Structure formats: structure tokens, C-alpha cells
Amino acid sequence: MKNENEGQEDASFIPADLAIQAMRDSGYKNTAYALAELIDNSVQADAKNIEIMCIEEYIQLATRSRKRLSKIAVLDDGIGMDGIVLRKALQFGNGTRLNDRSGIGRFGMGLPNASISQAGRLDVWSWQNGPDNALHSFLDVQEIRDRKRKDVPVPERSAVPAEWRKRAISIGRSGTLVVWTKLTPDRLTWKGAKATLKNTGWLLGRIHRRFIDGGLLSIRLAGGEDNAFESGMVTINDPMYLTAAPTMPSPFNVEPMFEDVINEPISVEVDGKKYEVQTRYSVAKNKTLDLAGSVNRGDTAYGKDAANNIGVSVMREGRELMLDRSWTIQYDPRDRWWGCEVEFPAALDEIFGVTNNKQAATVFNELSGLDWKELADPGESMPDVIARLTEEGDPKGVLLFLSETIKKNLGQIRNTIKIQAKGTRKGEKRHVGGDPTEEANKRWKQRDETNPIPDGDTKPSTEDLDELSGDLTEDGRNEEDASEIVARVISGDLKVVFIDKTLGGSSELFTVVSRGPATEVVFNRRHPAFDMIFDTVSADDDLDQLSSSELQDRLLKAGQAVQLLFAAWARMEREDPPNQARYERVRESWGKLARDFLDPIDISGLD
Predict the structure, then answer these.
(1) Which of 90, 180, 449, 590 is most buried when burial is the number of CB atoms within 10 A of its CB?
(2) pLDDT at position 423, please?
């Protein structure tokens, strides 16, 4: 009897030639993150010394030759693998640690997935009795695509190649060498060795900082052409800034830039078992302000370093998964001056939503933008929401108290940073708030209660924020002040902003510009009234050097200018008799609003 399946094509659930392309595109953020996955494997194999080596070669382009990466290798002195383990390690979704929650490995995807995301071919040598006795196997993407190979090649005895022995500092009695070849520009983030190693070192210094700082791990970076092979060591990159780093500018190369302010363990219960999630918070020392002097501390070398490490550091088993910026306030410069670290055990992987490439904790990330009230049914309190979501198996219920605690603490820390910065300004006038801006916003919000403006509750668009930031820069605000204003607009705290700007001609005294829910009142620097009224006393003036008569003259000049402005309005009305009734209605409406805005003025809120 004829077999019904005879002659049919491959009916695998996931044909290997199609799956390999999907896996190549599975999502490593960049080459450095893919290499970090290989470092995890080495750490899990008890490696103490790791070397990342990049080899460049010249390639001929259309009109000239350029250096390009041709090979990347990761060498470690871990325990090595026998043939069975090596073959499993090259399978997707397999491995020896799939259910092992004791270390930073587990998912069985790291070595092959990370490698083919960057390279067309992966070769692995591993040994347990000297590099001459190594076992070798490989994956070749094109072979799998062409259906020439369906299984991982059986490991064969093959000594570690001489080209890597001569470039390495040392090769241990046991260890593993992973080599990426068939590199193409569309896969690699950086085309050269120098940029690849620099960015990889910066990332590894943060991800594996606990291991490096504790003396448990040493990572050497080496690369270039053979006649110009440069090398250096990975140093720690602590986003909490509680550890001095050699690469930081003095004095923070020998002392921490931040100080520890809060250490708060949070208990998390899953299936009747309790786990502890550690949260830590740090804040910049006052020294960061003192050393900056008259310069904005955000513009210093250490301020720029801090700007690259903004976010909540999510740690799993001593290894950073991600620096989660979703907990920060966009454009708020204060967020570079705090650190927050959340560390959880691997047993909570599903609760936190850890991805198999260990680049994210999706559930934790989602909670940053959620208020517990958005999850509540009518009449529910936060404990009610936690209990219901937990009962429904929703991991957000387990982490809700943790997320609300983080938000509360970050709010307090931001306020601390704001007060800290104010204490150093010694009366300096800043156009962030404090001056008439604060009083105008009080009145604006009061008016919203009875006469809300259209679209007043919408979120500002990216274009709105970019244009507002540009206007603030043109107004002369420094980066920190401009960023703080934009952050307050995003949060809804700031509704109206005063801007001094050079408009097209000298006839327009001011204009009103909508920036989403916010409003700019833009005064024209070219109008004669600008100098006479708005610049009566400049922020640059040293008032102690002005005599009482000089101050009196300036104030009289401003008062006269205001009277002349109203005379100009009156003249406009008289020249347009047909619209007299319309002017009267406008005067009355504007007068009522002016009364509400001006009476009574809270003098304590003004500079």
C-alpha cells in the first residue's frame, strides 16, 4: 500500500531554513548586547578571564579601500564543554541550564541566537584538557538556508587555531573560544574594531559591574590590524555612581560621585512563597555643584557621563538586564542626578517579564507608565487591585506595590535635587518658575476650573516640545532650565510660559503661540516697549551697583511706557468707530481676566 506522505515536502512545524532568518532578526539592540550574551555564558561556566578580540581587514569599495571588521572572537578560561554539551549549546532553545535559576544563564538561546544576529557563521572550540585537545563544531547560516544541514555538526577533535593563540594573552587549561565570521555591515552596529570595542566595553562595564568590581571577572578588549593590535581592560560603569571609576574625571575617578540615600527591600509573594526585591537609590553629592562653579553642572564632563546613565537599573542575579528609562521624566535634567537599582532573583523571571535575550523586563517596564487607579474597578483600593490581579494570574498585581513605591521615592528624590540646586544659586534669577511664571500659572489653572480651553488636557506632541525647546534656547535659557520647563509642560504642571524672542518686525508687541496644552506668550525684542518695560531691570544687572535715583528713573520709565501703551490702544479704538462695540466687549472680558490674574498677587511667589 502506498504511503500517503510519500513525496511530500518537509512538513516541520518550523522549517529550519525559514526559522533561521527569523532568529537572526529576533532583536538584539546592537553588537555590544549580543557580545554581552556570550560573556554571560562564560560567567556561567566559571570563567575568571575573558578576552574579546576584533580583527580588521581592508576591503575594496567602489573607489577606495576601507578597514572593516572581519572576525570577532570571545575567549574564556571557564570549565569548557564536552561533546554532548557543546552540541546542545549550539541548538536553539536547548542547553544544560534550562531550569537552572542559580545563575545568570538559563534560556538556552544565548550562544546561537546572539551569534547569528551578527554573523553568518559561528565556530566554537571548547576544551577541558588543554587547547590542543579542543572539540570544534559550528553553525553556518547559509548552509541551513540552502537546506544542506539540518543538525548541529558532531563535535570533532581540533586544536585551537594559531591565529587566536598568538593574539590572546593566555589560554587556560580549560576554556571556550567563540568566533564570528562572515560579518556584514547590515548586521554589525559598528563597522570598525575601535568603535565596537569602545561601545562594548562601556556596556559590559555596566552590565557586569558587580562581577568586575568584586574581582570575579576580568575582560580584555583587543583589536585592529595585526601590526597595530591595541588592547585595554573593561572598567566598571556604575549608573548609581556609588563606586569610583577610573574613566571618570577627577575627583570621581577616586571617590563616588553620588551618595546612598535609600535602601528598601520589597517583599513579593508568588504561589505562597515570598521573595525579596532589593531597591536602592542614590543622589549626586553637593560637590557636583561646587565643582561646577558658575558653569551648569550638566555641561561638565561628569554631568555628560551621568546623562548617558539615566534610568532605573534592573538587576537579575547580579547582572544588569536593562537601564530602564521609562521611569524617567523626558527632558527633565534632574533625572541625571539620581540613581535607582532594582534587583530580583531569577525565580521571578516570569513575574518581571524577562525576555530570553536578557535585554528587558517587560512587565516591570509596563508598570512605569501605569497608575494603579487605571487598573482599578469602581470602588477598589490599591490593595483590592493587587489582590484581584494576583488572583487572576496577572503579574502586574504582584509588582504593583513595588512600582508605586519606586514612583513615590523618585518623586521625593527629584524634589531633593531641586532644593539642592536652588541652594547654590544665591539669588540668581532663573526663568524656570518663581518669577511671574508661577503666579500666571496659578491663575491659569484657576481659570481652567470654570472656563477650560479647548484641548487643554491633551498631551504635547514631539513637534510641540521640540519647538518649545527651540524657543527657550533662543530666549537664552541654559540646557538645564530649558529641559526643566519642557519636563513641567509634559507633566501638566506648567500651562503658560513667557518667552523673549526676536520677531519679524517691530510692530508686533507680543504674540500667543499654542504648544499643545501649553501656551507661549512671546514678547518681541524689537518692539520699543520691550526695553522700556520688560527689560527695566535685567537679570544681568548688579542691583547693588545702581543708585536709588537710577532705580527710580528706570521704574518711572516703565510706568510711562505702560501708560503710552494704553494710549495707543485708545487711539486704535477711536480710529475704528464701526467696531466700537466689539472693542468694548474685548476690553471688558480682558479686564475681568486681568483682575483675576492680578488681584491679589502673591508677592511671596515673585523674585
Answers:
(1) 180
(2) 52
